[in-house]
DNA sequence: GGAGAAGATGAGCCTTTGCTCAGATCCTCG
DNA sequence: CGAGGATCTGAGCAAAGGCTCATCTTCTCC
């Protein structure tokens, strides 16, 4: 109960006007992301971030109302990056025959998770329950996208494309996240990619109306 | 790099001898688990835990070397509980025909995650990277178990049962964890269970040697 | 009964960390 | 040039939280 997402309207104290300010903000976010990725959430203290960014702690608080706002900004940027990679790799997939489309999808989803694996993990850890909104929104969008793509293929004849999309997206996401944490190198294993394709194709086949 | 798991040998300061001590330890662990589940990792301070357990902070440190040791103990107990539920629900599954076996598996895996969903989430968040060993060990065990079960069914004719098991277990786990966080009530949805069965059966079919 | 171990207490030390503020410095533009 | 806004500085405040230790109470067992 009470998962009421009280909106925290970005809480930026001052928006950079001069290019100098923009550069500073970028440096801060970059530094924070690095620390987060390399040493985990607890190491990403505001003082440490400021130090690594090469600015004073005061400067950091000139642009971010509090530590949380900084973390949220990192989340936002990371999601945007993943989204870009996904969108790029998925362009024109609708026209492709199913097997190729699936192959592309797998490649795309893997690629999107490879953008910044450690950071990805760290964000899932450090973003408090109330602040996973950004990530959640992204996942919802991906599910919707896949759902639409599935519904568009009459050949599949799915009785509930949304449900199938949900299962596939969350399942694949979880699989990749777990693998990333435990055996990161394995993400490059062609056998794993093959298995993922089998999972998708099999799920689609078994979910057909007549199955 | 340096994911070297430095072993922290349980670091219990004193093992309870008298039953009074055992009760105290239980109360502490119980209190900590509750706070963790209800208010998240940050709320589970040692002082708060001691207060809720109805013991003094000194008593807590009589049994646990540090906060981390306490968290690890909670993880250990939680995993044991999940394992018990899983094992119980999966007994004699080998003899069953495939569809029923899959149905049982889905039910079992869902049930095991329903043991203490909030705590489950909190543990995944709060256990530092170096201390996920307990959870990881459990997941590895489950994968091995499923792998064995799959290999035992000649009908399936899987070229790589371990790989299929890995994909299935991690995929299902991720799916359930995500759903648990975003739409917990949906775990009871029969449609979701059906979709999960479709995913499993489909993946198995598509992974067959001749597929 | 009583010695000694087990168990319990809680004030408070000490470190960490988020964050403020009073001012210095840099830029832009008329 | 110089006024005024933008930017930056960093010592240090205040709160939070992990943890210690000197001391007291309860239990066990001969």
From TrEMBL, chains A, B:
Q: Which Pfam families match?
A: TetR_C_15, TetR_N
Q: Where is the HTH tetR-type domain?
A: 22-82
Amino acid composition bias (Basic residues), ranges on this chain: 1-15
Query: Which UniProt keyword terms apply here?
Result: DNA-binding
- Annotated region (Disordered) at 1-21
Q: Does the keyword DNA-binding apply?
A: yes
- Which domain of life does the protein's organism represent? Bacteria
Where's DNA bound on this chain?
Answer: 45-64
State the Gene3D superfamilies in the record.
Tetracycline Repressor, domain 2
Q: Which InterPro entries match?
A: Homeodomain-like_sf, HTH-type_TetR-like_transc_reg, HTH_TetR, TetR_C_15
Give the matching PROSITE patterns. HTH_TETR_2
Protein name, UniProt field: TetR/AcrR family transcriptional regulator
């Amino acid at each position: 109960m009470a998962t009421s997402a009280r909106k925290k309207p970005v809480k930026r104290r001052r928006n950079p006007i001069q290019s100098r300010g923009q550069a500073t903000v970028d440096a801060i976010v970059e530094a924070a992301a690095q620390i987060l990725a390399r040493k985990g959430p607890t190491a990403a203290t505001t003082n440490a971030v400021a130090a690594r960014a090469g600015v004073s702690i005061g400067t950091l608080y000139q642009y971010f109302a509090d530590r949380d706002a900084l973390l949220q900004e990192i989340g936002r940027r990371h999601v945007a990056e993943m989204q870009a990679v996904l969108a790029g790799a998925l362009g024109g997939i609708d026209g492709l025959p199913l097997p190729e489309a699936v192959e592309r999808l797998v490649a795309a989803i893997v690629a999107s998770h490879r953008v910044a694996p450690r950071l990805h993990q760290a964000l899932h850890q450090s973003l408090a329950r109330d602040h996973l909104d950004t990530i959640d929104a992204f996942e919802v969008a991906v599910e919707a996208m896949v759902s639409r793509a599935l519904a568009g293929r009459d050949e599949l004849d799915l009785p509930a494309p949304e449900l199938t999309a949900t299962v596939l997206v969350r399942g694949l996401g979880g699989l990749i996240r777990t693998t990333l944490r435990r055996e990161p190198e394995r993400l490059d294993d062609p056998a794993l990619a093959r298995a993922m394709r089998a999972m998708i194709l099999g799920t689609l086949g078994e979910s057909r109306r007549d199955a």
